[in-house]
Specification:
Blueprint lengths: L9 E3 L16 E5 L3 H11 L4 E6 L10 E5 L5 E5 L5 E2 L3 H7 L9 E4 L4 E2 L5 E2 L10 H9 L5 H6 L2 H8 L5 H6 L4 H7 L7 H7 L13 H13 L7 E4 L3 H14 L4 E4 L5 E5 L2 E5 L4 E4 L1 E4 L3 H9 L7 H8 L7 E8 L10 E7 L2 E6 L5 H10 L2 E7 L7 H15 L8 E9 L23 E3 L12 H19 L7 E3 L7 H7 L2 H4 L3
Parallel strand pairs: 2-3, 2-15, 3-11, 15-21
Antiparallel strand pairs: 1-22, 4-5, 6-10, 7-10, 8-9, 12-13, 13-14, 16-19, 16-20, 17-18, 18-19
Length: 513
């Protein structure tokens, strides 16, 4: 499915301008620093208007945190390793627009029927079969949830919970960004037994502890997935590993538009002169008319710190103050036997720490499925977010213990291959950070930012925020040169129930007299 199903999807029209940079007489040149979702989106937006683009990527693969690379199992089998499971939700309009460049009908994505969540008492919540339209989707979910009761619903403070149903960016951040997600849920009397639902689906997706995550981010996520969209919590996953399904085809598409993609090439610093920018890459320097900085938080801080002539001192200070979320661990196991057939391809387990989820890759990914069919085994992936220990070995053992408790059939399985990743490079959306978060546009008219840690005043998050800022970054540069831009879509940037929107701005809610 490629077209949005929600009739209330909002489209921000493409800026008008020339169709191709060739009409300018001389094509502008742009360096895109970072080959993740944001950088590849920006590169696509620019290249489609005839701009000469060079992509610099530090790693030897594209895709950023949704990338993949080749590894070997002990028996010599070549496999693709990655950070694992990512849900491509139907309301990720801007990301899906990027993917349709090489897959018009998104045939390389496949739907997963459910997103079950397991609580600490062994009860399971499910998203399958819910109505799509707000607020009936949320009410139906709560009604049939084993962790909600009618008494719980009646105890929720309607006035204090109103921000969840009336999200508008940036107003929601002005109101809630200095409150942490955990305190907000307590303040609205959200039932303690059901808080794992909010934390697993939303807070943990940011790799952050609920006490460290902004309540505004939590509210925006509720809006994006539940109360602001009728796309539902149905999502897709790639049918093959990320490189084969997503980035290799896109690299070919970009190459056909003269984009120079340089993997394994980290940018160390930027310079500036009257005619544009200088990009330094470990011994060599090249000139460009424009720059898109689409790298992760640590790399962005490093590049900006090494570039004292770029931007203003206040801007560089704000970049330097960006923070990363706590570390997380991904452990992938190739087992010698299958997991029980009734198990879901994905299970949220954040209520049984330190395990946050279990993915069965051979249930949806072609490479893993072929390996399982050939060997009679299975490919299981375990995630631990916001890790509180630096002892990787201890955490690995704890994850496997939880796996054996939840899926007892794995206790006697032999591990014929294992790969473990330990990373800390996701942006932290902490208390009060929104006001300080850098925006797409910078003090330099031809220097723009893109990424999931960059502010854009739309109800987007995670991979979709990366894609949205990528299109916005391309549009900003295209507008500067008088070239046509690209449309940007989102769920409505307001609550969908008019009465609640009016109540949210009333004296009763705001406390004004």
């Amino acid at each position: 499915m490629t077209r949005p199903q929600d009739p209330k999807v909002v489209t921000r029209p493409a800026p008008r301008g020339l169709a191709d940079a060739g009409q300018l007489g001389e094509r502008p040149t742009v360096a895109v620093v970072g080959g993740g979702i944001a950088g590849l989106t920006a590169a696509t937006g620019l290249a489609e208007r005839g701009v000469d683009v060079t992509v610099f990527e530090r790693e030897n693969h594209l895709g950023g945190r949704v990338g993949g690379w080749r590894e070997q199992l002990p028996d010599g089998t070549s496999v693709t390793m990655s950070r694992g499971f990512h849900a491509f939700f139907r309301q990720y309009y801007n990301l899906r627009a990027l993917l349709t460049r090489t897959d018009p009908h998104l045939d390389r994505l496949t739907a997963l029927a459910d997103y079950p969540l397991l609580d600490s008492h062994g009860r399971t919540d499910t998203f399958a079969g819910l109505p799509r339209t707000p607020p009936w989707n949320a009410l139906a979910f709560a009604w049939r949830s084993p962790t909600f009761t009618l008494k719980d619903l009646l105890r929720i403070s309607g006035r204090d919970a109103l921000p969840l149903a009336t999200v508008s960016v940036p107003d929601t951040y002005h109101r809630l960004d200095r409150t942490d997600a955990s305190s907000f849920l307590e303040a609205i009397n959200f039932p303690a037994a059901a808080q794992h639902l909010a934390f697993e689906v939303f807070s943990r997706s940011f790799f952050a502890d609920p006490h460290d995550l902004s309540a505004a981010e939590l509210a925006t996520m509720f809006h994006l997935y539940f109360l602001g969209s009728s796309e539902g919590l149905v999502f897709d996953v790639p049918t093959e590993p990320f490189p084969q399904a997503l980035w290799d085809p896109l690299a070919g598409y970009l190459a056909s538009r003269r984009v120079d993609i340089r993997t394994g090439t980290p940018v160390t610093a930027l310079g500036q002169d009257r005619d544009g920018f200088e990009v330094e890459t470990g011994g060599s320097t090249e000139h460009f008319d424009g720059i898109v900085l689409a790298c992760d938080v640590a790399a962005l801080r490093t590049v900006v710190e090494a570039s004292p002539t770029v931007g203003t001192e206040a801007w560089r200070t704000a970049i330097g103050q960006l923070r990363t979320a706590p570390p997380f661990l991904v452990r992938r196991l190739w087992l010698d036997r299958p997991v029980a057939a009734q198990r879901s391809p994905f299970l949220g387990t954040g209520s049984v720490p330190p395990l946050d989820n279990i993915s069965l890759l051979d249930r949806y990914e072609g490479e893993a499925r072929r390996w399982a069919a050939r060997t009679g085994g299975s490919v299981v992936e375990l995630h631990a977010y916001a890790a509180t220990t630096k002892d990787s070995s201890r955490l690995e053992k704890a994850l496997e213990k939880r796996l054996h408790e939840i899926y007892p059939e794995t206790r006697d399985a032999c591990v014929v291959g294992e790969k473990t990743l330990w990373r800390q490079d996701c942006p932290l959306f902490g208390l009060g950070d929104f006001a300080r978060r850098p925006t797409v546009e910078t003090p330099e008219v031809a220097l723009v930012l893109a990424g999931d840690g960059v502010r854009i005043d739309l109800p987007v998050a995670l991979m979709e925020r990366a894609a949205a800022t990528g299109w916005a970054a391309a549009n900003a540069l295209l507008r500067h040169w008088g070239l046509a831009g690209h449309p940007i879509r989102s769920v409505p940037n307001h609550g969908r129930i008019s009465l609640l929107n009016r109540l949210a701005t009333s004296k009763y809610f705001t406390g004004t007299s």
